[in-house]
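Final paragraph of the annual report: two paired records, presented back to back.
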Amino acid sequence: MAEQPYLRAVVTGASSGIGAAVVERLSAAGITVHAVARDAQRLAALADKTGCIPEVINVTDREAMAALFAENEIDVLVNNAGQSRTGNLRDTTGDDIDALVDVNLRAVLHVTHAALKGMVARNQGHIVNISSIAGHYAFGGGNTVYHATKAGVHSISQQLRCDLYGTKVRVTEVSPARVETEVFGRLLGDMEAAHQRYYAEYESLLPSDIADAIAFAVLAPQRMNVSFMEVLPTMQVVGGLNFAKSREV
């Protein structure tokens, strides 16, 4: 901890799930956290619990996010905010495509752009991008636009390491598999049904597991950059092969 120089962090998508767990974990490490989300009530409760600074901002609001970084010396950015949708590309509306690209990809670029100026000037900082195994693997049941945006986050993370070569600004991508959050409940519109379908009979990751993984990278000695972590439940694997029968059979 003696080598840990970070004082302030911004965490997006902070009102629940992984984001809230990251706020709690970094706050416990002595970092002042600006918790960004749209839900003022949840952020207020999180602030009471952790001492974080609630920032009721839509992550797609470029001016508001830029002001946050201009007004504060932020050492750590955790790009966690994201959305998903059910169905394949044929079933995805144009509005859904735009929403996924705007939140999952465009906002990551704009928010990171806002953070980098100060970090590079101070020659200190850490960008943490939360992607997904959906960005690395194709599998049935996944939404094509979601997969594409998470693949984009992976590419951003890889290229940022090149862009920041010669500086002490670190970049980490954390790529989780199934984590027990509200995401499936929101997609199905029924939290209990989602719990029974996706979690009740499985030993999934918890948001605190991902928060601990992020803390490991952020609190590591400055000489060490954890560039990529793929985090899966022990009982979940990726890959596999399906072969559909011919329609004539």
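The closing record of the year follows.
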Amino acid sequence: MSAIIFENVSVTAKANVYFDGKVVSHTVVLPDGSKKTIGLIYPGTYTFNTAAPEEMKIIAGACKARQAGASAWTPHAAGTQFDVPGNSKFDIAVESGIAEYICSFKP
């Protein structure tokens, strides 16, 4: 996958650290005020709660995700994405390596 570059943004230097450092991200604020997080997910299975709707784009590595209430996992390789409704939750699992992602928060 080619490099994704965001120009004229603000980045929060303080990391968002979850699950004892197994998921780490930084917040990026775009010129229009919209927010994204860019991060890494180390091997393991994690549950995240959402407030706003999110689009999760996997930019390197691989993972699988399961939406709230679903029993099946969906695999996601680099270059794929999935949406998560607001006021919901989802499970994400990385079996090996590191998954890199961009999470876009939707209005």
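The radius of gyration is 13 Å. This concludes the annual technical report; the extension proposal builds directly on these records.
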